[in-house]
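Students often ask what a holo structure prediction actually looks like on paper. The answer is less mysterious than it sounds. You provide the chain, you provide the ligand, and the output is a string of discrete structure tokens encoding the 3D arrangement of the protein together with zinc ion.
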Amino acid sequence: MKRKPQRRVAVIGAGMSLFMRRALETGKELSYYAASQALETAGVRLKEIQAVVMATAPDAFDGVHMKGEWLLDGAGGVRKPYLRAYVGGGSGVFSIISGWTLVASGLFDLVLVVAEEKMSSCQPHPQGAFLTIFDHTIERPLGPNLLWIFSLEQHRYMATYGIRNEDIALVSVKNKRNALDHPVAQVAASLTVKDVLASEVVAWPVHRLMVSPISDGAAAIVLASEDVARRLSDKPIWVQGVGWSLDTSYWGNRDLAYPRYVERAARMAYEMAGISEPRRQIHVAEPYDPFAYKELHHLEGLQLSDKGKAPEDLARGRFERTGELPTCPSGGLMGVGNPIAAAGLMKLCELFWQLRGEAGARQVPGNPERGLAQAWGDLMQVGTVAILGVN
Amino acid sequence: MLEYGWDAGVAISRFLDGLKAGKILGVRCNVCGRTVTPPRAFCELDFKPIDAWVELPDTGTINTYSICYITWDMKPLRKPQIPAVIEIDGTTPRAGFLHLIGGVKGSSVESIRKQLRVGMPVRAVWRKPDQREGAITDILHFEPVRGRRR
Ligand SMILES: [Zn+2]
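The corresponding structure tokens follow.
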């Protein structure tokens, strides 16, 4: 980071659609629903919005070329400066980063950020949308599918630190239970570690209940510059820091046990936010959890656990909603669902509500003042981080 | 439907020629000191052309593996695929590439895990020379090297 940004940026409204296996609404309709809710809670009309950021993941889900443009109407982007934020699974958190740059730079005072995903249209299975992320010459002839890379990474993580699958299954248990309190949740459940490990093995060490579901859904927030935020909102939630980083696409050449790109993204965000002791200064975290092990892997990259120690921290209750550092109090992707780009922005909606004390049954105790959300994606190479706070 | 005629490029073309001849080729960068495969024309860290091509042995170790029971469209597989990241001997540690493990008996997680572990030495099992076509699949799979300890 060359210099710290001068203009402060706040989140002043948030909205979400239901997350579900198959929505009968189109992607535009889902986007409209989330975006209009965010505008309403911010007390802002669309005509006051000066620019729009849209996050949506692979075009292949919809079979629509340049679907950012296609979704524009639902995102409220007509006749406005509009951009699509797209770094695969990292897109949801990258969307607030993109919106933040537009406001922090002084270009705009009010920006609408919308994230949408509709995976269910893709037949016979949306996993097929990811087949083309593999190298066309030296990987695709081997017949890979997306689960391969995650099961390979989880096993490397386990083998490096001697982690058991029981330790990882506990993430599914915690997040699916937390999601019981989320009104939009798709796969909330009260389960035990035994239930998770009794679900079928899809790609050992990954069992079915350690994988987030196929989902349709949308989320949105409204960003404002400092003056405008103070005028429009009693409780603006400030974007204190953002960071992002991408690692090499030669994914086999990386240390799969540790997400260094997440560390780089986090360090950038911590520096911007003036955070020197993240474990003390972050009060609630929404690490990205599309697979159970990823929450633990990411907590280590975020410097919120020691390397290889996140499973122990989880087992002793540190990450429970009432623990020392509540993680995924929303229920995460494992519980609320995983409409890819929308799931990342859902995490920022959750921080907005948690920091305002408006999270209802999901509220973490102790009046949290600062939270972190993180997402990850593409060939396991993207880290995106945003830190929100009450001042 | 569209089809694509991808070019393999300068470095991967030479790598594929090597496979056809039964050799695994890698490249070295003298600035970062890494030896890596699959080869590349330039070092992505130092952003300069690579310094040397090296012929690597066809042995290595298992960095990680998985036992996959589903296809991309979630159809069950009776006989699982065993993808792995293999670190080829002579390359920089933690610089592996994707391939498959074979030569393993049984199809249950239990029986396969008894025969494989992370860090285990493996060797490439090649197609017969007259059946090779200059493709990654000229190596059928890697299989455990029995009786070899490292
Ligand atoms: Zn180099």
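Residues 196 and 209 of chain A are 5 Å apart (CA to CA).
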